[in-house]
Amino acid sequence: MLLKVRCGIVIGVLSASMMSQAQDYLPVLQYHHVSATSPKSTSVTPEQFTEHMDYLKTAGFQVVDLRSALDDLKDNIALPEKAVAITFDDAYRNIYKAGFPILKERSFPFTIFINTEPVERQSRSFLTWDQMKEMKASGGAFANHTISHPYMLRKNEGESDSAWLGRMTNEVDTVEGLLVEKLGSSPKMMAYPYGESNITIRNMMKEKGLMAFGQQSGVVSADSDFENLPRFPASGAYAKLSTLKTKLNSKPMPIASIKTGGDFATDKPVSLNLTFKQGKYRLKDLVCYVSGQGKAELDWLSDSEVVATASRPFDIGRGRINCTMPDNSGRQYYWYSNVWIRSEANEGYISEKS
């Protein structure tokens, strides 16, 4: 009996120790090109990518398989301490030539979201199915980025809402079929081209069992919208290791509810209403930044509810508000971001109500 009690105590101590080292959130890095000659805005050089991957290794980050980690978070299963996931968009061949050897050497799993039209026509700038098979054998996963990389919320001229939705359904279903046919399986994940989606597209993802990513920054947790997940861009202007370190050490903002006013911005300044969970947080240190405008105005409606408002309307295109707040230790930051689309009438965007 005494032995059982002692064993129970040991198991309890070990469990507590393991939980203290566990993590209930996941930063996800987003890359495109790994090249010194591709567009700088969406590229890291091989040297920069090596620096990033070396930092993950030496700083003790645990690079995890993305889909498995998302499943665990959704089921409230703890991830390893300092878990992180690596992703790429667009299936560029330079990922295979310059990025894959670096990942393979370190045994890092990774996910590439592929648009299949250039792959199928055998563009020399894009991956081949054989290259993908080789990468899959060494920890690579390949997921959905549509056939043709369209703006998913834009209708063709004269196209009805139902015809648009049918076209978007085909963009998704065709890639899912090719992943199974060519690679044997699909991880059932999606990255929206340009990060754009609306409630109709997100409902489609849910019905098809696909987890999906936008292009807002932030950290994934069990509270995230699994049809519109955040990632941290790590290319171009975001490739500096100093700023990447802050993002890798970020936590999900402790938010109980969010009001954004919808996916589309108008000719009025956008606002973001955040209600925080119960707890002791450094709410007085919350700062929200509006893309291209600086700090948002913060209006505290109560001790736990704030409205962040832009100073002026967004320009045409995509705009965002990023909010950060230090945790009680001051060593990590809570992070939340939201993106809006401000469209022009001639761009053919689907109605906000569709």
Automatic annotation (TrEMBL):
SUPFAM superfamilies to which the protein is assigned, alphabetical: Glycoside hydrolase/deacetylase
Subcellular location: Secreted
Protein name: Polysaccharide deacetylase family protein
Major place of residence: secreted
Transit peptide in keyword set: no
UniProt keyword annotations, A-Z: Signal
Pfam families named in the record: Polysacc_deac_1
InterPro entries on file: Glyco_hydro/deAcase_b/a-brl (IPR011330), NODB_dom (IPR002509), Polysacch_Deacetylase (IPR051398)
Domain NodB homology: 82-284
Signal peptide: 1-22
Origin superkingdom: Bacteria
